[in-house]
Amino acid sequence: MKFGVIQFPGSCDERDALHAASLVGDAVLLWHRDHDLQGVDAVIVPGGFSYGDYLRAGALARFSPLMGEVERFARHGGLVLGICNGFQVLCEAALLPGALLPNTSLRFVCRQVELDVVNADTKWTGACERGDRLSIPAKHQTGRYWAPDPVLDELEANGQVVLRYATGNGFNGSARDIAGVSNRAGNVVGLMPHPEHAVDPLTGSADGLRLFESAALIAAHPTDFTEPTSPSRLRRPAQASAGTGAGGHR
Amino acid sequence: MRARVLIRPKAGILDPQGQAVERALPALGFEGVRNVHVGRLVELDVEDPAQLPAMCEQLLANPLVEDFQIQRPDADGSHQNEGPDDPRG
């Protein structure tokens, strides 16, 4: 299993993501100006402040050359995880539905949050069970998940709401307490909290490792990886189509 | 040609920046202010103004959550709107 972690100017969590990925497989750093994914099995778009959050968070990073490769990779079923700023980048790239808006408090918030696993059938949550509680830190100022109500209904119906802030843990004003979503096929997942910061009990929780272990599980079943619509490893029938569904805005 | 693009949060989406400004004004004695919304202004020189709507759709605004309005200067230098009308009037 080989993870690639993209580094943009302004990324700041790529080292922790590399460390987390290296606990379950090999991990390489990918420079955003390159055109080559170096044969990785999974791509992580890390947290930070790519391009200084200029214009809108994630708006400029999506035009980096490597992001074109990531879009192709994702649309062919490749595993992609966007964390925090990476989630914002994937939404801007329309690989995930919806948008991230400034927290209702307008404040940068850094705290440990409890997350409920809503869908354990995505490629990044397969090592979890539905209803599992994960303790993971969140740290952001622009994490209010928003999509139009009909899109939110569709996401819930499709199982694309992957993680929610547990009752009492929401702090940013996200619609329906959504902390993480997936594309229709479940190979692309984005979340605002930081699983890569929760991989060792020394720092309070190792729950974040489950996401990386989930990806490694998929890589151990390459049929699932190359055939994103294959239902073989899914406990429920797989959704038939790839892509973001109705949520993409471009 | 010089152009301006006004970008604002879509109607119906919570705008905490606008709310914060609206709450601050009475503290300074400015009463009777309602419906404050904070957006962005992008000024740019363009060779082909026909490309402006596409620039807005693809980069300058996020059409899912923001409305945009393109303004181009008249002969007298003042700006005239040519984008969609502000839905809030």
Give the oligomer, counting copies of the same chain as homo and different chains as hetero: heterodimer
Q: What would you give as the CATH superfamily of chain A?
A: Class I glutamine amidotransferase (GATase) domain
Model regions low in confidence, pLDDT < 50 over at least 5 residues of chain A: 223-250
Shape label of chain A: globular
**CATH topology category name of chain A:** Rossmann fold
According to DSSP, the number of beta strands of chain A is 11
Order of helices and strands of chain A: EHEEHEHEEEEHEEEHH
Unreliable stretches of chain B (pLDDT < 50, length at least 5) are none
Radius of gyration of chain A: 16 Å
Helical element count of chain B? Answer: 2
The CATH superfamily of chain B is Phosphoribosylformylglycinamidine synthase subunit PurS
**SS-derived structural category of chain A:** alpha/beta
Widest beta sheet: strand line-up of chain B: 2-1-3-4
Largest sheet, strands/sense/barrel of chain A = 9 strands, mixed
Q: Count the DSSP helices of chain A.
A: 6
Largest interface: A-B, 20 and 13 residues
Mean pLDDT of chain A: 90
Describe the structure.
The complex is a heterodimer of chains A (250) and B (89). Chain A has 250 residues and is an alpha/beta fold. Helix content of chain A is 22%, strand content 23%. In chain A, strands 2-1-3-4-11-10-9-6-7 form a nine-stranded mixed beta sheet, sandwiched between helices. Chain A has a two-stranded antiparallel sheet with strand order 5-8. In chain A, helix 1 (14-22) links the parallel strand 1 (2-7) and strand 2 (26-31). In chain B, strands 2-1-3-4 form a four-stranded antiparallel beta sheet, covered by helices on one side. Chain B has a single domain (2-81), classed as Mth169, Chain: A (2-Layer Sandwich). Chain B is of the alpha+beta class and 89 residues long. Chain B is built from two helices and four strands. The relative contact order of chain B is 0.30. The interface between A and B is medium-sized, with 20 and 13 residues.
